Amino acid sequence: MKNFFIIITLTFFIVFSVSLSNVMSAKSIVQSSSYATTEDVLIALLLPHLDNIVTKEYKGNRQSWNIARIEKVSFETTKKPIDHWYEMKILIQVFDNTKISNKSHLDCINLRLDISKSKTLTRNNLSLNDIIKLISYENNQPKN
Fold it and tell me: What are the pLDDT digits (tens) for 21-74?
């Protein structure tokens, strides 16, 4: 009888502690009611990489910019089934940092997203920098 009481007591504590930890973890997650598209998620992943590209293009001078639009996304492949990638053409609005004005211009960034490498991302210690490659950058800054 004593063993039965100990087993019931232990079972009660285990069940109660597990359910309490589930409640605590559920309360620690804050859900947002905002709406995001797949394009929003993709842009959020690309933003740090794009910022590095823009900074390098302007010779280390940090620029204020934002994405105007994604102009084109195309799926490219070769005859090898494992060799495929996406090419993206992104237009960004770059603001004039040297003067106090509302002047801006559009630059064009062409990227290659090598998705065949993404399958081995964690296995080969690759980062997003290994997957995202700059094809070209069109700097359309007006000449003074």
Answer: 444 455 566 666 778 888 888 888 889 999 999 999 988 888 889 999 989 999
User: pLDDT tens across 65-111, in order?
Assistant: 999 998 999 988 887 767 788 899 999 999 877 666 678 889 999 99
Count Cβ atoms within 10 A of the Cβ of residue 36 and give its class: 0-12 exposed, 13-18 middle, 19 or more buried: exposed
Distance CA 18, CA 79 (A): 53
Show the CA angle centred on residue 8, arms to residues 4 and 10, nearest 5°: 115
Candidate CATH numbers 3.20.20.70, 3.10.450.10, 3.40.50.280, 3.40.50.300; the one for domain 38-138: 3.10.450.10
What whole-number distance in Å separates Cα of residue 77 and Cα of residue 79?
A: 7
- Say if CB 117 and CB 130 are below 8 A apart: yes
